[in-house]
Specification:
CATH topology of chain B: MetI-like fold
Number of helices of chain A: 14
Shape of chain A: flat
Helix content of chain A: over 70%
CATH superfamily of chain B: MetI-like
Shape of chain B: globular
Number of strands of chain A: 0
CATH architecture of the largest domain in chain A: Orthogonal Bundle
Distance between the termini of chain A: 48 Å
CATH superfamily of the largest domain in chain A: MetI-like
Order of helices and strands of chain A: HHHHHHHHHHHHHH
Number of helices of chain B: 12
Number of domains of chain B: 1
Order of helices and strands of chain B: HHHHHHHHHHHH
Chains: A mainly alpha, B mainly alpha, C alpha+beta
Radius of gyration of chain A: 25 Å
Oligomer: heterotrimer
CATH class of chain B: Mainly Alpha
CATH class of the largest domain in chain A: Mainly Alpha
Radius of gyration of chain B: 23 Å
Chain lengths: 293, 267, 362
């Protein structure tokens, strides 16, 4: 290489480095904000979990939450509710999405408003609505009684039932949106081809359409499950104090008992569960799917 | 012939379930609206009388108005910060190598993935040390971090759908990177940026858990007040406030849809 | 009144660019004369677009030198290189009118608004789109958009213009029409043009010289005629024009086909690997009688005759070397005396048409 070319090579390398740094620099403020608000407190909180009440490093907190019947029940309840909510969302959401897919695009777009309006409405507003609907003299009880199905008002609010109903309502759009997007992108020619080759319409659905809808379905399931695990507002309001999921347990452990050690240990476990789900989804589908909206 | 009948029955079932689920979704959302016009002093549906007393109660209450002001200011500030920071971040990531991009993507969605209660508790104790609890600054910083992923994801997907050759063409014609970005790229992804801004606004306005711990005193958000009120008793004023919030939400949603429509008409 | 800029020569020396283990540009050197129309021709993935992008400044080479005239440009950012570029997708700005698109480079350079308007209008006239200034891009056809892209790249009178397969999105008739128009436009402009295409016919039509690119290297740079008549390697011979190739043995600068010595006026290029005889279908002469002593005898039996409109393709089974194609004009002169299927056909390959190439470039 001549002298000129050697100089060029050096200049080119430094130019490339400068350019890369400029782009990182553009992203830096946003990244910093997220680091400070999300990562820093989480790390600090997690570190708290490794100290006992006397300020010495220990795993007492973790031992306590796994031994204590109360905390164990909290885990069990949280999982039970999250699984129940996820299953119900799938049972309600999948047929809805499939139905929308079969409608002409314009109609489906208009009907999607019915999904988007709740999605954009505040969680508090929707939870409040359910409180009103499900209370003892609320509309559901009164209409059931007037038709004669029941004689005594059902206890629908301030308990497990109410929590689950409310949570399903909040979570359903989180399942419907990614699932519908995936279904829309399935080439209907493939299903028609299956029918043309002799499959029954139902068979064509199960053997061709359903497998292709799975990525969107799994994305929705993971999203709903993670959100349910850590959900606070709706179970707190509709559970009436009888239902204590992880999020509420963490909050009450701090505000009522000032037991930061136990609360942070619970928090770490919750965080690990959420991260494990994300890692699983990344492994199977790749995070890029989330960004391809 | 039998298959055709089977298909029709299946189709009918599907339609029934579809409609039922849609109603399940929309009715509770909208049921607050007629309730807010009820004249009764307890919660009832259907309302038996018409009255604006709960709106009166809301707009004349100094506590509620102060909370509304706090929430609106926080939302506007959050949008003002999150939109440019998030958009620039999206652009920077878009132009970076795939390796940097995927690590950054993981980091950027953390505020959504990590359970909000943990962020809330962590931020609360961090702010306690810095004296940022119950301040507008503290609220805005936390809300901005929460809103950033929405802006970044939205703008990044807008950039992906944009023919980047145009920015290259502008640069080949004599425009510096910054000039080309401003005169050619931004006008074309402005729809994504606007959508991101709407998302940031509504995220801040509706945010409950962090505001519950971090806002308070003179700087209590409307969500914090609503939450505490709902825990204690079902004040019908909440119905009026909820209706106002629904109007804002739907307004944002309409705004986003209009953006999408004008973008398509330009093509 | 602006003085016409003098076109610049381009000197590329030892350009290297690797993506991981793949060498997109493998020690490329090329000298392009001022005002020349040079085409980079090659298959997809050959590196021709990478080379063009390196000239534009959008690809940063690992090492080497690029000079426009006497100025070293390799590390200069694209917007300071003063060249015009037409992209394959045209990359027009959809939210601006045609006139605004064309005036954009002038706006960037701080030209006054009235001047912008006048010069943009003149540029549009040059590409026969005068009066289209107020139209929106979405209202234009593909051919019209292509011309707007061209006007935009020329309006500021650049000394070098780069074009990345600008005609590939057009249909055949329009493409052929535009090829001739572009060539005429080049005569009018005083600019060096570097043109990228994978269409060899397009390259032959438009270029002053063609650089054939393969696997990141330039295999040969020649005028179209010399490239066609005297390819230096099998790749070039095969890529340009139709041909059938037959393996031959070369010893002491003499080639033998099936034991018989071949008479050739053309030098055999230096290379690696074996050698091949390149037979262009239209260069073979159908001889009614015996093949003259001065020519090479490639006679055989007619296997099939295919009518192709302007010419007839005769597929011949050579006695020992395999299949040979002969192209004969479909007029009376060509068809008289043409043997039918199964009959013996005399084929003469004259020494000035006997092309022998190495398998690979050195």
């Amino acid at each position: 290489m001549s002298v000129v070319e050697l100089q060029n090579a050096a200049t080119l390398k430094s130019e490339e480095r400068r350019e890369r740094l400029t782009f990182l620099g553009l992203s830096l403020p946003a990244v910093l904000a997220i680091l400070i608000v999300v990562f820093l407190p989480i790390f600090w909180l997690s570190s708290l979990s490794f100290y006992n009440a006397a300020g010495e490093p220990s795993l007492e907190n973790y031992a306590r939450i796994f031994e204590s019947a109360l905390y164990r029940r909290t885990f069990v309840v949280t999982f039970q509710i999250s699984i129940a909510v996820t299953v119900i969302c799938v049972l309600l959401g999948y047929p809805l999405c499939y139905w929308l897919t079969r409608l002409p695009n314009k109609t489906a777009a208009i009907l999607m408003v019915f999904v988007l309006v709740p999605f954009w409405t505040s969680v508090l507003v929707r939870t409040y609505a359910w409180l009103v609907l499900l209370q003892r003299n609320g509309i559901i009880n009164s209409s059931l009684m007037s038709v004669g199905i029941i004689e005594e008002p059902l206890q629908l609010a301030h308990n497990l039932t109410g929590s689950i109903i409310g949570m399903v309502h909040i979570m359903l759009p989180f399942l419907v949106l990614p699932l519908y997007a995936t279904m829309r992108s399935i080439d209907t020619d493939l299903v028609r081809a299956a029918v043309g080759l002799g499959s029954s319409p139902r068979g064509a659905f199960w053997r061709v359409f359903f497998p292709m809808s799975l990525p969107g379905l799994f994305a929705g399931i993971v999203l709903v499950f993670i959100l349910s695990l850590g959900f606070y507002v709706t179970p707190a309001l509709l559970g009436g104090g009888r239902v204590q999921m992880l999020a509420q347990r963490i909050e009450s452990t701090i505000t009522v008992y000032s037991n930061w050690g136990a609360a942070s240990a619970l928090g770490v476990v919750l965080l690990l569960l959420a991260l494990a789900m994300i890692w699983l989804m990344n492994r199977v589908f790749g995070l890029d799917k989330l960004f391809m909206r | 012939m039998e298959q055709l009948g089977q298909r029709k029955i299946d189709g009918l079932w599907l339609t029934v379930v579809g409609i039922a689920v849609l109603f399940f979704l929309i009715l509770p959302t909208l049921i607050v609206i007629p309730m807010s016009f009820s004249g009764a002093s307890f919660l009832e549906f259907p309302p038996t009388s018409f009255s604006l007393r709960w709106y009166e109660a809301y707009f004349t209450s100094p506590e509620w108005m102060s909370a509304t002001k706090t929430s609106l200011i926080a939302a506007v500030l959050t949008t003002a910060f999150a939109t440019p920071l998030g958009s620039l971040c999206a652009y920077g990531l878009h132009c970076s190598t795939p390796r940097i991009r995927s690590s950054a993507q993981i980091l950027v969605i953390m505020p959504i993935v990590v359970p909000v209660i943990l962020i809330a508790v962590g931020v609360f104790s961090l702010y306690a040390k810095l004296g940022l609890n119950y301040t507008l600054t503290g609220i805005v910083i936390a809300h901005t971090a929460l809103a950033l992923p929405f802006v970044i994801v939205t703008v990044m997907s807008g950039l992906q759908n944009y023919d980047f050759d145009q920015e290259l063409a502008a640069r080949s014609l004599g425009a510096s990177r910054a000039y080309a970005l401003w005169t050619v790229t931004v006008p074309q992804v402005k729809f994504s940026i606007q959508t991101g801004a709407f998302l940031a606004f509504i995220t801040s306005l509706d945010e409950v858990v962090i505001s519950m711990l971090v806002s308070g005193g003179d700087n209590a958000t409307i969500t914090r007040r609503m939450f505490n009120s709902l825990r204690d008793q079902l004040d019908p004023t909440i119905a009026a406030i909820s209706t106002c919030l629904i109007v804002v939400s739907v307004g944002m949603l309409i705004g986003v849809q209009l953006i999408g429509r004008s973008k398509n008409s330009d093509k | 009144m602006t003085t016409a800029a003098q076109s610049l020569p381009i000197d590329i020396s030892n350009l290297c660019k690797a993506y991981g283990s793949v060498k997109a540009l493998d020690d490329v050197s090329l000298n392009i004369a001022a005002g020349e129309f040079l085409t980079l021709l090659g298959p997809s993935g050959s590196g021709k677009t990478t080379l063009l992008m390196a000239l534009a400044g959008f690809v940063r080479p690992d090492s080497g030198s690029i000079q426009f005239g006497t100025q070293e440009m390799i590390a200069t950012p694209p917007h300071k290189r003063g060249l015009g570029m037409v992209f394959q997708s045209y990359a027009l700005f959809p939210f601006m009118t045609v006139a605004e698109n064309v005036a954009y480079p002038l706006k960037v350079r701080g030209v006054s608004k009235s001047d912008q308007k006048a010069r943009a209008e003149r540029a549009l006239d040059t590409v026969q789109l005068g009066g289209y200034g107020d139209r929106r891009i979405t209202q234009l056809s593909g051919g019209q958009r292509q011309r707007v892209a061209l006007a935009r790249a020329m309006v500021f009178e650049p000394q070098i213009i780069l074009m990345d397969e600008p005609l590939s999105a057009l249909d055949k008739k329009l493409r052929e029409h535009m090829q001739i128009e572009l060539k005429a436009l080049h005569q009018k402009l005083d600019a060096t043009v570097v043109y990228v295409t994978h269409d060899q016919r397009e390259a032959l039509t438009m270029s002053d010289r063609i650089a054939v690119v393969n696997h990141g290297r330039i295999e040969q740079v020649e005028t179209p005629e010399r490239l066609y008549r005297q390819p230096h390697s099998f790749f070039v011979a095969d890529f340009i024009g139709e041909s059938i190739s037959l393996p031959v043995e070369v010893a002491n600068d003499k080639a033998q086909l099936g034991g018989r010595l071949l008479k050739s006026d053309l030098p055999i290029a230096v290379g690696r690997g074996g050698h091949r005889l390149v037979v262009r279908p239209e260069l073979l002469e159908v001889t009614p009688g015996a093949v003259p002593e001065t020519a090479n005898d490639l006679s055989g039996h007619v296997h099939d005759i295919i009518y192709q409109g302007d010419s007839v393709l005769v597929i011949v089974q050579h006695d020992s070397a395999g299949q040979i194609n002969v192209r004969v004009p479909a007029n009376r002169a060509g068809q008289t005396g043409l043997p039918s299927k199964g009959e013996r056909i005399g084929l003469a390959l004259h020494p000035e048409d006997t092309i022998i190439v190495p398998e690979h470039v050195a």
